[in-house]
Amino acid sequence: MARIVAGVTSSHVPAIGAAIDNHQTEEPYWKRVFSGFEKSKEWMAKTKPDVCIVVYNDHASAFSVEIVPTFALGCAAEFPPADEGWGPRPVPVVKGHPQLAAHIAQSVILDEFDITVVNKMEVDHGLTVPMNLLFGSPKQWPCPVIPLAVNVVLYPPPTGHRCFMLGRAIRKAVESYPEDLRVVIFGTGGMSHQISGPRAGLINSKFDKAFLDNLTKDPKKLTRIPHLEYMREAGAEGIEMVMWLIMRGALDDKVEEVYRFYTVPASNTAVGHIILENRGRGSGFASRHKAPAKRKPAAGRLKRAAALAKAERIRG
Length: 316
Ligand SMILES: [Fe+2]
Fold this sequence. Notes:
Blueprint: E1 3-10, H1 14-21, H2 28-35, H3 38-47, E2 51-56, E3 71-74, E4 78-79, E5 94-95, H4 98-110, E6 116-118, H5 125-135, E7 145-150, H6 160-175, E8 182-188, H7 205-217, H8 219-222, H9 227-234, H10 242-249, E9 255-266, E10 269-278, H11 299-315
Parallel strand pairs: 1-8, 2-7, 2-8, 3-6
Antiparallel strand pairs: 1-10, 3-7, 4-5, 9-10
Bound molecules: fe (ii) ion.
């Protein structure tokens, strides 16, 4: 059986991609951002997922405003990097996993999440930047990736609750796939930021940090945040954080937070990053947790057993 072993959230700021592509990662401004992902890359190299599901949003690269699917699942064999106006990023073509993707599509649609199946799609910085942050810059990405593009650019985006429940449905889909695959799911984007208008440059660290806390401990609370509250507290583009709830919905209720990083700013955005591991059954991390000790027989039970044995001997 396939299983989701962990969830990762990551910023997907395009300027991070530009800093990588232009070899600026050692500059003091960018070093502060990239150093926060060094441990994450080590974690990912150890975790070695067989497949990643990357929840991100397309920025008018694959979908223009003519067609805006709410949830679009990439079922193709590969996804080339998109040309976002200055040529495609020099990153490897993303290889898909069409069999698992088709299985997820069937399972979630039968569970009444009417996602759009996409058989041809280019992927932009929303997907490739988090790949760089977690995998570095290899010649080939080390595992297949299933992109899940979510509309957060044209009103109305999905609610946080809908996203969380879709995460649940994705988990069910993954766990009904017969091949033994270890899957890591990404939620990307955020955190607080506003790109244009009178509040351009808005960053709300208090909101962001509370969001990170609740992502680990009380995600259901986050599912009740309305769109207007994201707008007010986290800026117009802060709505990207609903995508993190798809990732969180795909995990156990109780998770182990193994890493967190938060820094301000990267470009005009707050960068938030967290790694959550599933603690539960079959998550593949059982070796790190002690097996529960065998229950010692209570003194009372021992006495009762001895008395019973004595009575049996007397009767015999
Ligand atoms: Fe974005």
